Automatic annotation (TrEMBL):
It comes from Muricoccus pecuniae. It comes from the Bacteria. This is Pimeloyl-ACP methyl ester carboxylesterase. It holds the Pfam family Abhydrolase_6. InterPro entries: AB_hydrolase_1, AB_hydrolase_fold, Carboxylesterase_BioH. Residues 29-267 form the AB hydrolase-1 domain.
């Protein structure tokens, strides 16, 4: 089991991370989840690599066990990037192999510009320098919604509706995903594991940013792209542009999958683990 770490961001608000011990001589893994997701999403991946190297998974501000901010502007993406850097300083991560799902992949690209020496290698999970508007519409409606489900069955039914292409193999996997998405509140109902005000912060940010320069920051390092072929966030043309821009980019495609692969799919986990194991 991981150790729970609570650290202070530069404004004093508490950030939470999960840490698995491992060989300190190897570059640690830094696992950055998607928006509306938490560090626990990476538990199975972390357990596969724990012992071989140190593994740290982060909860962004307003997510999981990190603090809820009094001011909604605290959830702007640029503040999240600062939080990641604060967490790296507090947890003594001068260099890391970053695995980022969706928003976490955006953070990885941004960090390649803000702190180039931090990234030893990067894995982008279903995200690239251009974000498909369909994905923004999907997450926008979802992020601000607190349905208050009476149980996991109702949560699963809802998630199947809003994320029909999520590549989960069976009912057990859907229930696990729902349990990672919602938690019981004081009223006995299931509520989101994130502050739903993040939707307002996303809307205040305007349209999707141009992340082309940030993606080019990954040119000098080993990088892998995991792509759900039916992704609502990452269009095929963007993937082709990424491969042209970085010819050594390792591409793993999950046919028929939407946003975002869990990184536990057999067609993803094996090549991902081989990629990570090659990094000293």
């Amino acid at each position: 089991m991981p150790v729970s770490r609570r650290i202070a961001a530069r404004d004093g608000l508490a950030l939470h991370a999960l840490e698995w011990a491992g060989d300190e001589a190897r570059t640690p893994l830094l696992l950055l989840p998607g928006i509306c997701r938490t560090a626990w999403d990476f538990a199975l991946l972390a357990e596969r690599h724990a012992g071989k190297r140190r593994v740290v998974a982060l909860d962004y501000m307003g997510h999981g066990d990190s603090a809820r901010a009094p001011d909604v502007s605290r959830y702007r993406p640029e503040r999240a990037a600062g939080d990641v850097l604060d967490a790296c300083a507090a947890l003594h991560l001068p260099r890391a192999v970053v695995v980022g799902t969706s928003f976490g992949g955006i953070m990885a690209m941004v960090l390649s510009i803000l702190r180039p020496r931090l990234l030893r290698a990067a894995v982008l999970n279903d995200i690239g320098p251009r974000i498909d508007p369909r994905g923004l519409a999907l997450v926008g409606g979802f992020a601000g919604h607190d349905p208050g489900f009476p149980g996991l069955d109702e949560a699963v039914a809802y998630l199947r509706t809003v994320m029909p292409r999520l590549p989960l193999p069976d009912e057990e996997a859907w229930h696990r995903f729902a349990a990672l998405t919602y938690k019981p509140g004081a009223d006995g109902l299931l509520h989101p594991r994130w502050d739903t005000r993040i939707q307002r912060a996303m809307e205040a940010g305007g349209g999707p940013p141009d992340l082309g320069p940030a993606f080019r920051g990954l040119r000098p390092i080993p990088a892998m792209l995991v792509w759900g072929e039916a992704s609502e966030f990452l269009a095929a043309e963007t993937v082709r542009e990424m491969v042209r821009e970085k010819p050594d980019l390792e591409l793993v495609t999950l046919p028929g999958a939407g946003h975002a692969p869990t990184l536990e799919e057999p067609g993803v986990a094996a090549p991902l683990d081989r990629f990570l194991d090659r990094i000293p």
